[in-house]
Structures are given as structure tokens and as C-alpha cells.
Amino acid sequence: MTRAHSRGGEQPCQDCLVGFGADKIREDFPILWTKVHGKPLVYLDNAATTQKPQVVLDALTRYYTEENSNVHRGVHFLSQVATQAYESSRTRVRQFLNAAHDREIIFTRGTTEGINLVAQSYGRTHLRAGDEVIISAMEHHSNIVPWQMVCEEKRAHLKVIPINDAGELLLDEYERLLSDRTRLVSVVQVSNALGTVNPVSDIIGLAHSRGIPVLVDGAQAIPHLPVDVRALDCDFYAFSGHKLFGPTGIGVLYGKAARLEQMPPWQGGGDMILSVTFERTLYNSLPYKFEAGTPDMAGAVGLGATVDWLERLDWAAVHAHEQDLLEYGTRRLQEIPGLRLVGTAPEKAGVLSFVLDGVHPHDVGTILDREGIAVRAGHHCAQPVMKRFGVPATVRASLALYNTRGEIDALVAGLHRVREMFR
Amino acid sequence: MSDLQDLYQEVILDHGRNPRNFRRIDRPTAEAEGLNPLCGDHFHVYLKLDGERIADVSFEGAGCAISKASASLMTSSLKGKTLAEARETFERFHKMVVEGDREQAKSLGKLAVLKGVCDFPTRVKCASLVWHTLQSALKGETQTTTE
Known about the structure:
The structure holds two protein chains of two kinds. Helices cover about 40% and strands about 15% of the residues of chain A. Chain A is an alpha/beta fold. Chain A has two domains: about 5-35 and about 315-420, Aspartate Aminotransferase, domain 1, CATH 3.90.1150; about 55-310, Type I PLP-dependent aspartate aminotransferase-like (Major domain) (Aspartate Aminotransferase, domain 2), CATH 3.40.640. In chain A, a hairpin with a 4-residue loop joins β11 and β12 (about 280-285). Chain A is globular, with a radius of gyration of 22 Å. Chain A starts with a helix and ends with a helix. Residues about 5-20 of chain A have low confidence and may be disordered. In chain B, α2 (about 10-15) crosses α3 (about 65-80). Chain B has a single domain (about 1-145), classed as Sufe protein. Chain: A. Chain B contains five helices and four strands, in the order ααβββαααβ. Chain B has a four-stranded mixed beta sheet, with helices on one face. Chain B is of the alpha+beta class. Chain B is globular and about 45 Å long. Chains A and B meet through α13 of A and α1 of B.
């Protein structure tokens, strides 16, 4: 079953990999063969960024060695090759998300830029004094600050859906927050700090029943879950390439064409215009209206290669493997005395966030690092979440499809070492 | 593991667990807040001066073992010193921890236990945060960050 197949009724492709083995897939990732401090790298910081398979690295090299030129500009051969490569990546991303039209796929620098685009373009034209924007208590700073900025400018209000002690959204509270002043709902699909998978379909349904558009921050969801923007019916969906095994510096904002058509550009420059005089500028059509300046062409081509690579995986097997890792990791971590998991929602993906009695996460991170284990220690750009759970920081082990039970065992052994040192 | 044991010496773990001078000072001569936005370490330093001499210095807050131990050791070592002596101690400490000049350890007394930090570039800010906070207090600034 391919990722596309799991979303719709399409036939699986002929050369799809049958079954899935993390050991096999690791061979595609050269960095996973390296050592850190003399120990085999155990990379458990995938929510920060994922590693890249060789095919993506090859695509970047090929682009720069054989295809590089500026897109949408030249009549010469290379410009056509580059434009074709860039636009073909857009088509592949559109298929990957099951969006209706290529022009609904806007290349950005990442999730942050996608959210800022909507805040600056949609937010600034639709928000009036006293209006409201709804986010949740488990947002990354990138889905808080852009809204604070536009709300402050427009004297609008930011409303926050609260969460319970397990790290689940309180949907009843959300329903109560929806009002005739609500202009937009912007929520995260999978929390980077807690791992909670939010019921975004329900959230979208409730907002739409009142005619309110919804943006979904998909940064942490897309490496773990099949995403079908038409089935979700979200108005906007933002994600980053680098958290999806793709290059850094490239991301995608999906927007329904009808919404995007109504929105003004947010950055001016080349490529986003039809004609410019000093008196008047005519803007280009979608998606170019939102892609001012020379884009990250190599990044887009790399993202196209990433999507091709992802489509060949057996996603039912990947999902089963990831769930097994999460369950195994949860069980093994809970065996460690003094360890408390932060984020215990029944529906989770990819994140094991925890604190260890008497040891600050930063110290845990340093000791694990010397064992070759990469975890994140800190507030994960989600300070309100840390405050909600009464901790200054957590240790976060975040999983990807190439992680193994053996790596969870290495993490557990490392944590026992931490406990010995801080005894 | 040897450099790890160098970093987490018993003295450091002890000061991290039972920090000295971990309290506020009423009506301090100067005070400042120190924040490391990267990891969320957050300290408040209080200072009571008697002319040019540090009559009392203390801190409150939350952070890792290294930052807490550094604060505990700093306050212990600076109490009773003149401001000029305190500045010189800070310069030596900075050379030891940031620049990796281990020779400085010889004249730094108990602070020498933090010399292993220079081998952990990601942790240098932990050790120096509270010192920068103290400097801010002396300069009359109320806030400092490691960024």
C-alpha cells in the first residue's frame, strides 16, 4: 500500500517496496552510518529535523551540476530545464497532498513562512478591531507569534483552546470559543512538544459550520501521517521539507484556490508580477503571486525527489513500525525510576517527551550526547506548553521511520547512566 | 566518559543539588535577571554592596546542574571581595571557561572545578549566564540574555 493508496482508491505502483524494514531503509541514509564521540549515531531529534536519503542528496547535486538556471525567465535551454524541474516538483507535491490544482501549492522557506504568509496576507485584510483568531495551547511559537503580531496591529484578540493533563485539546472549550468574531482557526496537527495527534477533521468541521477558515500546521504530522488536504477540507496547510527527509530552506503552503485568489501578495519583487510601471503593478496569478524573488529551486527539486522516495514506501508497514517504536519506547521509558512522560494522549505520533527527577534536561542531553545519542533538551519552541506542564524544559526523543528498537534500548541504557552520575 | 566525569565532578553535582546562597536579598543594592532563551535557564542575581566591597551576593532561579553550580560557586567566591577583585575573577573565569585557558584554574580556587566546561561548547553559556547577569546588575541593567 502506498501513501497515496492509503488515502484514496488508487492502485499501488508497480515498483513499490513491499513490506518495510527499518534496517533496510537505514541504508538509504549515509549520515546514519556515522559515529559521534566514537559511538554509532543514535539520531532521536527528528522533530527538529530529519536526515536525508541518498536519492535526495543526489537530486540536489544533479540539479546544481546539470540543470541550474533561473526559473520562469530565460528562453535558453537550461532555464527551461530548471523551470520544468521546479514545476514538476510542484505537481508531485500537489499529488502527494491530493490537492486539486498545482496553483494551490506555494513554495515557501518552511512552515514558519507559510503561517506568516497567511497571517500577513489573509490576516491583515480580514481582521478588524475586536475580531478573534483561535489557536491552541500546544502551538509551536511559529503558530503563536505571527498571530500575535497581526492581532496587535489590528487590535484583534488571540483565543487559546486549552488542553488537559494528558496533552489533549478540550474540544468543548474550543466550541465555546468559536464566535461570530472568529475570523480564523490555526491549529497544529501533531504537537512537536507532546506528540499529540489532534482531531483536525473535527476542528475544521466545527469551524466550517460557522463559515470560519482553518489553517493546519502540519510540520510534525506530515512525516508520520498520510495527509489528504481535500479529505481534511482545510483551507490552508503548511509544512517544511526538512522535517520530511527533504532539504532545508524549502516548504509548502497549500491553500484552497478560492481563498488564495482573494488574498493580496505579502512580498513584492520579481516573478510575482505581470507588469510593473512606476504608477501601477499588475500581480501575477497563483501560485507566483506568492513567490516573490528567485525561489529555492534546488530545494524544490530536492523536495520533489523526497516525495518520489516517500511514495515508494509501504506506508501501512511504516505506520505499524512507528507505532511499535512509540509503544515500545513509552513502555521502556516508564520502567526508569523518576521518569515522567510529558504528553500522554492516546493518539500520539513520533514524540517521547519526558523529565527525569533531579536532573535537568540539559544535563541529560549532554550525557546522552557522549553516548552518541542525539535528543533535544529544552522548551522546543513551545514555552506555553512547558508552563502548562509546570516544567522549564523537557528531554525530547523524537522518532522517524528509520529508528529501531535497538536505538530505544540505547536511549534507555543512556538514561540509566545519567541516573548513576546524578545518584 | 573521562571528560564527562571532568564536567560532572562531585563538587559540581553537590552545588547543583544544594546550591549555596540560594535566596533573595531584601533591599539589594543591585539586581538583575538572566535568561538563556535557548534552554529556558532563568536566574535572578541579588547584590548588596558596602562601599566597594560585596557584602552579600545571592541568586534564585532554575537551570541545569552546570548553571546552578556556577551560580552557587560564584556567589560563594565573590562574597567579601571588592568590585575590582570581582571583575578580575570574572575575567579569569571567562578565560578559563570560554577561551579554554586551563592555567587560570590555579588562581580561581573552588571555581576551578568548572574548567571542564570548555570541552563542551554547547554548555559554556550555562556556566557563564549567571556571571553575565551579575555584570548586568553592576552596570545597572535589569536584564541579560545569553544571546
